[in-house]
Amino acid sequence: NADQYENNFYGVSFNVNDDLSVSYGVGESTKEIAGSADVEAEATSIQIAYSLGGASIKLAETEIENQNYGTTDTDGTTIAVSLAF
Fold this sequence. Notes:
This protein is mainly β and 85 residues long. Helices cover 0% and strands 75% of the residues. The protein is elongated and about 55 Å long. The termini are far apart.
């Protein structure tokens, strides 16, 4: 018997104005292991983006519980700056 996965993902975003947006996303995954207990992994992330003319800055804060369906929890921050000419 092969392992199976059940995945659910959802998110919501809000444009505060023409230059600022905020979003939130969640991903839940259950690994159904044949002959054993199911294992769940979950990731959540909140993002904010601001643009001004051809420049934008983006920030994402992400947390992952049970990464790789194990006991490892991970979190991270991503910052991106873009310039268009």
